[in-house]
Structure formats: C-alpha cells, structure tokens
Amino acid sequence: MRYARTVTGTFLERPNRFIAFCEIDGVRHRCHVKNTGRCREILIPGTRVILSESDNPSRSTRYDLVAAWKGDRLINIDSQAPN
Q1: Higher pLDDT, 68 or 80
Q2: For position 79, what pLDDT does the model report?
Q3: In which element (H, E) is residue 1 found?
Q4: What b/e readout covers 58-79, taking b as 16+ CB neighbours within 10 angstroms?
Q5: 9, 51 in Cβ contact below 8 A?
Q6: CA 6, 60, 55, 44: dihedral to nearest 10 degrees?
Q7: How big is the chain by its Cα radius of gyration, in Å?
Q8: pLDDT of residue 32
Q9: Contact of 77 with 67, CB cutoff 8 Å
Q10: Average pLDDT over every residue of 29-34
Q11: Distance CA 30, CA 43 (A)
Q12: Which single residue of 28, 35, 56, 75 has CA 20 to 30 Å from 48?
C-alpha cells in the first residue's frame, strides 16, 4: 500500500486503542491508530514511527499512525493494508 504523504515521528503514548500521541519535529500530536490491536510489543515509548498526513479539515486528527520500527525492521500496523 502506498501512502501519499508520510512523516517520521516518535511514539509517546497510547491512551486508548484509537488514539496515540506522537512527537513530530518537537511538537506533540494526537494521532489516529489504524490498528485496534494491543501492539504493546511494537508501540513502546521512544519508538520511531511513520505517520500518514491527511488534509481533511473535518478530521479530529491530522495524522494516522501506520508503521513502527522494531529494531531494524519496519512493521506496518495499518490493519486496512493488505498483507
């Protein structure tokens, strides 16, 4: 799956299964998590993540969290993406 606009950030916390807080260029952002699973082994505070940016003004979040680095592997956590 291809994402139109992506940025790299740092995962901070996940207060519930739909929302995560990530830091992008020193700014904390509320992001939508595209996987409702636990992902506790992947989403650890300080983990580098890939976020997809949306330009839809009616959204409550500007970014979707779509992937995270685990060591030297990039793991796609977007449950809507094909395997």
Answers
A1: 68
A2: 86
A3: none
A4: eeebbbbbbbbeeeeeebbbbe
A5: yes
A6: 0
A7: 12
A8: 95
A9: yes
A10: 94
A11: 15
A12: 56
- Using the structure block, give the residue that is written with the tokens 């940016």: 53
Half-sphere exposure (CA, 13 Å, Cβ side) for 72?
A: 0
Q: Are 34 and 66 in contact (CB under 8 A)?
A: yes
Alpha-carbon torsion 23, 50, 55, 82, what sign?
Answer: negative
For residues 17 and 6, what is the distance between their CA atoms, to the nearest angstrom? 21
Average pLDDT, the chain: 93
Q: Which two tokens stand for residue 79?
A: 């449950």
For residue 28, which amino acid is it? R
Run of H or E including 13: strand 6-13
pLDDT on residue 59? 93
Query: Residue 33 carries which side chain, given as an amino acid letter?
Result: V
Among 6, 69, 10, CA closest to 41 = 69
Q: Which two tokens stand for residue 32?
A: 């939508």
